[in-house]
Amino acid sequence: MSDPSRDTAAWTRDHAAGLSRTDRNTAPIIYPPDRRTDPDNHLWDTWLLRTPAGEIADVDGYRVVVALTASNDLLPGKRHDVATHRFYYSTDGRNWTPGGCVFGDSVPLGSRQWAGSAIYDPETGDVSLYYTAAGHRGEDALSYTQRLAVAHGGSARTTADGVRFEGPWTHKTLARPDGEWYEREEQSRGMIYTFRDPWYFEDPETDEAYLLFEGNTPIPEGSKACGGDPEQQAFNGSVGIARASKTDPTACELLPPLVDAVCVNQELERPHVVYRDGTYYLFVASHRHTFAPGIDGYDALYGFAADALFGPYEPLNGSGLVLTNPANAPFQAYSWLAYGHCEEILVTSFLNYLDYDRPSLDDVAYLPEDEQFRRFGGTLAPTVRLGVDGLDTRVRGTLDHGHLPTAEEALPETEDERIARLRGADGDEERPGYGAR
Ligand code: FRU
């Protein structure tokens, strides 16, 4: 068994002082796609159906994604209040067919279901879907209580028409915050607390199963953290971890967090790990408006690396910044999810607010409603290709909207490679001015 007794690694204000948009971490501007992933629904946080070892699942020739969705009649900002898991399947990883709701309307946990992960057993077709139960089923006024939950007992099957999920599902609450390692709702002093986004991960080095999740570190009144400044202490995001089981999807034992961002950032969203040649790359998504006062951050994918699952983790690229939006479209994409592809890491996300460059996403609500609809994407974004070298990453280019290749599929030559080839040079040199805006 690996030993989780160690100090939680800190993402510090010193690290965050180095956050800066460069060619290496900035995605190109995105234009809306010709065809939306789902013509009827907004789609945002999305995750691939994977095998327990983390590969993209092959369901009789189909790959599958699960996404948070809401009817596209709904004002985009209200979508979190009604989030529903829908799934999409594809034979080529480019064209996605809506498969409908994963569970129908019979989810007993939560008034809505937020992000998670989905694991497919290639032998049996069984699926375990880990998710966030937010609020309580049937509540009159929306509450923001969050629990880690799982639905198990169902499976993914193919028919002549495509893929369907079959129940019956058994839903179970896996964990609530303990108040010691993970802040409870009533301990929270700032913006909405977090205890969500369970991500199943089997450690290839120890063969043990874990759930990563988003949490907050409790900061007692009178704490000396960041010079005792209570305003900054209200920002206390963490990456949590729990011991899970390879055979029992309902097993879950909380362990101390892997990383926290006390006095730095309130939300380390959708944590997940990509393992590569002995290095654990830990990624989270976060927002500009969830950084503590005095830190200029971005809506971006942030990352850390360690040579063991339990760390100690160091921020990638010095500051932690891996991938952000260009300055003239700073909120164009969000909720990035990385996965390994041969030598690269591929990053999928959804189109958030295009054609919008106010200082904060909070200001979206001041736009007229028709403008809120017009500017919201709600569909899969172009996949971004990252090169990785130890603690350094860089944007290599992009694939089409929603293109999610498996490891068996070769990627096209990047623009840099093409230019280098035409110049007769050998490959990976950088093209000045690419990326940053
Ligand atoms: C990130 C996120 C997740 C959460 C979901 C709710 O986009 O905040 O952490 O599960 O959105 O819609």
Short description:
This protein is mainly beta. The chain is built from 5 helices and 23 strands.
Characterization of the model:
About 5% of the residues lie in helices and about 40% in strands. With about 425 residues, it is mostly beta strands. It has a single domain, classed as Glycosyl hydrolase domain, family 43 (Tachylectin-2, Chain A, 5 Propeller). β20 and β21 form a beta hairpin. It is globular, with a radius of gyration of 21 Å. The C terminus is likely disordered. The site of beta-D-fructofuranose (FRU) has 15 residues, from β2, β6, β11, β15 and β20.
* Structural class label: mainly beta
What's the number of domains?
1
Assembly type of the chains comes to: single chain
Helical content class: under 10%
Attached small molecules: beta-D-fructofuranose
Low-confidence stretches: 431-437
CATH topology: Tachylectin-2, Chain A
Number of strand elements:
23
Largest sheet geometry: 9 strands, mixed
N-to-C order of helices and strands: EHEEEEEEEEEEEHHEEEEEEEEEHEEH
The overall pLDDT average reads 94
Topology at a glance:
Elements: E1 9-10, H1 13-17, E2 41-50, E3 63-71, E4 84-90, E5 97-101, E6 112-120, E7 126-134, E8 146-158, E9 163-166, E10 170-175, E11 196-202, E12 209-216, H2 225-228, H3 230-233, E13 236-243, E14 253-262, E15 269-276, E16 279-286, E17 300-306, E18 314-315, E19 321-324, E20 333-341, E21 344-351, H4 369-375, E22 382-389, E23 392-401, H5 415-423
Parallel strand pairs: 1-14, 2-6
Antiparallel strand pairs: 2-3, 3-4, 4-5, 6-7, 7-8, 8-9, 8-10, 11-12, 12-13, 13-14, 15-16, 16-17, 17-18, 17-19, 20-21, 21-22, 22-23
The structure holds beta-D-fructofuranose.
